[in-house]
Amino acid sequence: MKKISILLLLFITSCSFEAPTEFSEKAMNESLINLQKESISFKEVIRQNQGKKVLINVWASWCADCIKGLPELKKIQKTHPSVVFLNISVDENPLAWKKGIQRFQILGEHYNLPKGMKNGDFVDFLNLRWIPRYIVVDEKGSISLFKATKITDDRILAALN
Questions:
Q1: pLDDT, block means (10 residues), the chain with 161 residues
Q2: What domains are there in the chain, each with its CATH number?
Q3: Which of 82, 119, 97 lies closest to 34 in space, CA to CA?
Q4: Nearest to 153 by CA among 65, 52, 35, 51
Q5: How does 11-37 read in b/e, with b if 16+ C-beta sit within 10 Å?
Q6: 146 near 19, Cβ under 8 Å?
Q7: Cα 45–chain centre separation
Q8: How far apart (Å, rounded) are the C-alpha atoms in residues 49 and 30?
């Protein structure tokens, strides 16, 4: 029993639970689709927003928890007007994605991951198993908050302030 306890302790302490501070090169090269149906790399989107804080909202039009969090997201948008709100949808249906933006009046920049939430280098990097997912990127392009699944998570406001 003592040996098992020691092995278990070694296993737990050897696992890294540290959140990344930089996106992987593969994630950065993932192709997103904008509202004009143009392809753009995630790297280019981050580069375009260099010098600004960015709140990434990974969502889908069919996601009840994503929709439930939108009123709080809108409050944060009002209190943090200098922050870029980058909405990345994992909808596989482009029409559903665009209708969701209009129906729920989601503000900010909009992109789609056409491979959905189960395929692709970006979702692999995030280890995306649940949405919504919120990530905060600082002015230098580094990740200051890697994983929040509720918009009410206090770490989001702390990272934005």
A1: 51 56 96 97 96 98 97 97 98 97 97 93 93 97 96 97 93
A2: 19-160 (3.40.30.10)
A3: 97
A4: 65
A5: eeeeeeeeeeeebeeebbebbbbeeee
A6: yes
A7: 13
A8: 17
Check residue 125 and report its DSSP letter: H
Q: Which pairs count as long-range contacts for 17-23, CB under 8 Å and 24+ apart, including other chains?
A: 19/143, 19/146, 19/147, 20/125, 20/143, 20/146, 21/142, 21/143, 21/144, 21/146, 22/141, 22/142, 22/143, 23/125, 23/143
* Dihedral-angle region of residue 127 (phi above 0 means left; psi in -120 to 50 means alpha; beta otherwise): left
Unique residue bearing structure tokens 């692999």: 124
- Distance between CA atoms of residues 154 and 21, nearest Å: 19
Residue type, 25: E
SS3 111: strand
Over the Cα atoms of the chain, what is R_g? Answer: 17
> Looking at residue 18, what is its pLDDT?
72
Among the listed residues 38, 67, 72, the one whose alpha carbon sits nearest the alpha carbon of residue 55 = 72
Angle at 142 between CA 137 and CA 147, to 5 degrees: 55
For residue 8, what pLDDT is reported?
A: 45
Residues whose CB is less than 8 angstroms from the CB of residue 48 and which lie 6 or more positions away in sequence, other chains included? none
